[in-house]
Specification:
It contains four helices and no strands. It has about 70 residues and is mainly alpha-helical.
Length: about 70
């Protein structure tokens, strides 16, 4: 069981987060662990599909494809 100090700290942190809700790109409400876990996985997956990440990860492949299509 959590101590009174730990509970107070959690409430303080939660209050801060709620007061800054518009600063976040994603919001996960952890009232259902399975759903919250799935939501978190979805966020990670979606970020890995962003163009910046994919370009860095697959730059050689992208370069080879674009060069083959533009060489005359």
């Amino acid at each position: 069981m959590d101590t009174k100090k730990i509970i107070e700290t959690r409430i303080k942190e939660a209050t801060y987060e709620v007061n800054h809700i518009y600063d976040y790109d994603y919001i996960i409400i952890n009232d259902n662990f399975k759903k919250a876990s799935e939501d978190l996985c979805s966020i990670v997956r979606s970020n890995r599909l962003k163009s910046d990440y994919q370009i860095r990860k697959n730059l050689d492949l992208i370069k080879s494809f674009t060069l083959k299509n533009f060489i005359f």
